[in-house]
Amino acid sequence: MVASSQGGVDIETVAHESPEAIITVPVDIKTGPTQKQTTDLAREMGFTEPCVPQAAECFSNLYKLFIESDCSQVEINPMAESNNGEGRQTILSEAYDSDVS
Predict the structure, then answer these.
(1) What pLDDT, on a 0 to 100 scale, did the predictor assign at position 81?
(2) What predicted TM-score, i.e. pTM, was given to this entire model?
(3) Which of 41, 51, 59, 78 measures 20 to 30 Å from 35, CA to CA?
(4) CATH number, position 79
């Protein structure tokens, strides 16, 4: 999984301009991400503690979507926390399958 807290721009731009802002989590394709991996990712991305479990669950669900839909990429941009620290809001979610015409 590849993530960055610098939302609103494509990951390639972030990688080019601020490579230190890219978070990479190696995932075993057979077992998927562990709860520790998704929780650590949520914290590293800067979610507040009340929102960490929801963000971690979202990451797990995105991976499940990626595998079950046989996607080449699944993207959320941006993924945000509400102003009052309750929950998260997904503004845009896209799934890509380059083999579909």
Answers:
(1) 78
(2) 0.79
(3) 78
(4) 3.30.470.20
